[in-house]
Specification:
The chain is mainly β and 130 residues long. The chain has helices at residues 4-16, 81-84, and strands spanning 31-36, 42-49, 52-59, 62-71, 74-79, 86-94, 99-109, 123-128. The protein is 13% helix and 49% strand. A hairpin with a 5-residue loop joins strand 1 (31-36) and strand 2.
Amino acid sequence: MITIALKRFIALIFMLHLSFPVSAQNSSFEGIYNLLVPDQPAYATVQVKGTEAIIILMWEGGWEPYIGSVEGNLLTASGVTAIVGVDIKISISLSNSTVANIRIDSCNPVNDETACTYSTGSTFQALKVF
């Protein structure tokens, strides 16, 4: 049985080796963000190449990968279900160059051992650190 930490490590290695086009469509999403999530300080790093995006959400004691796409001023992404443990889809828009608005579009547990921390429709903001 593969542990969650090993699955996360394998996912990170896989995502770091994804082939991305060289030019960014909307690089304004790229950067490190401080998520303003109640009772759970967290950071996220966002990388955009072409229309593809990778988000790594990090908090004390763990991290989660998300893969998505950018269309205009909207980034949509899904958690890597095998790692995150839920089928989650999010969308992110920018208020300005330093504030991101995050919405959970859907979140469903994939088994009886997992649960969504926040429900569908929950919204958060994140401040771009750099």
